[in-house]
Amino acid sequence: MLGIETTCDETAAAVVARDSDGKGRILSNVVRSQTDEHALYGGVVPEIAARAHVDMLDHLIDAAMREAGLDYAALGGVAAAAGPGLIGGVIVGLTTAKAIALVHDTPLIAVNHLEAHALTPRLTDAIDFPYCLFLASGGHTQIVAVAGVGDYIRLGTTVDDAMGEAFDKVAKMLGLPYPGGPQVEQAARNGDAARFAFPRPMQGRSDANFSLSGLKTAVRNEIGRMESVGEQDTADLCASFQAAVLESTADRLRVGLDLFKQRFGAPTALVAAGGVAANQAIRGALDDVAQAAGTRLIMPPPALCTDNGAMIAWAGLERLALGLVDGMDATPRARWLLDANASVPGKFAN
Ligand code: ATP
Ligand code: MG
Ligand code: FE
């Protein structure tokens, strides 16, 4: 399965095989990040992103096929992220996938980018349904019961900013380069997490929702009170911010796992995915939560947490195995809820 990812600022293509025992095997996984194009603006500029996808995608697909040592005729299908994301980029990826499917007479699978994040742990670990997913990325922060392929029930979500977005905004306030998540994590390593007493949003609430904008504002206010922000101040601010995120996340996940057990019984695992799951400190915090809940923690390696083509190819393989194939009328979607057909629709879009 060829997988194509163009929903944000990563142009990516990958080839993934599914062995007879059901396990995934990554034959190639090529990612080109557009960091340089957007760095000047401190964030992703949609039109620049779309043009960069047009420039790069053909070359990346070619590279992925060559690295996999495959001819197009050998493909069992082509999958593209059809949303949610920046619509210009989504159109580039989906249209390219349609062309390949038509020319090489192979099935097209239009994948939900969030579903791909959600299923990635099954690419690397033999994990059965139902599992409890913590999805934290640039645009989303959710606790989801993954009951099967295409069967997702949202248990909690952010009521304001996404977690990755909060990391990016804090980095921007501190003058750290884009993208900010890894920068904040790096700076926090040398910082004192106890220096600033930032709020632990939603702590103790009986629902499993998140909130991050108040915490972000608390960091901004603290910076505003300082005469100048030196290197140690930056490290301490990052460490204190990250500690607040970790504690709040652990608290929200404890509630989420309880809600999960009440509705679905014991999960096979607690699974974390999405760009924020690349954060090593978060990994440690989640380990404790999983242990306390009597389950195990599974996290894809960092390179499969941030956007990539392998996760799209894998979601394509999972859907193809169930006969879920799309036609040439598949539409690119800027918004696309993961649990659009769920029995209990969530209140918030994030
Ligand atoms: P979505 O998946 O919601 O559509 P996206 O695809 O842009 O959004 P991802 O690529 O999955 O998001 O993740 C990128 C986000 O993850 C960014 O906000 C980035 O700052 C954050 N991130 C990446 N690495 C880390 C890290 N080490 N610590 C914290 N955040 C991180
Ligand atoms: Mg990105
Ligand atoms: Fe993503």
Automatic annotation (TrEMBL):
Assigned EC number: 2.3.1.234
Domain of life: Bacteria
Cofactor(s) needed: Fe(2+)
Keywords annotated in UniProt: Acyltransferase, Cytoplasm, Iron, Metal-binding, Transferase, tRNA processing
Molecular function terms, GO-annotated: tRNA N(6)-L-threonylcarbamoyladenine synthase activity
Residues where substrate binds: L135, A136, S137, G138, G139, D168, G181, E185, N279
Domain Gcp-like: 26-314
Catalysed reactions listed for this entry: L-threonylcarbamoyladenylate + adenosine(37) in tRNA = N(6)-L-threonylcarbamoyladenosine(37) in tRNA + AMP + H(+)
Cofactor note: Binds 1 Fe(2+) ion per subunit.
Positions of Fe cation binding: H113, H117, D307
A UniProt-annotated Pfam family: TsaD
Subcellular location: Cytoplasm
Family classification: Belongs to the KAE1 / TsaD family.
Functional note: Required for the formation of a threonylcarbamoyl group on adenosine at position 37 (t(6)A37) in tRNAs that read codons beginning with adenine. Is involved in the transfer of the threonylcarbamoyl moiety of threonylcarbamoyl-AMP (TC-AMP) to the N6 group of A37, together with TsaE and TsaB. TsaD likely plays a direct catalytic role in this reaction.
HAMAP family associated with the record: TsaD (MF_01445)
Name assigned to this protein: tRNA N6-adenosine threonylcarbamoyltransferase
Native species: Bradyrhizobium aeschynomenes
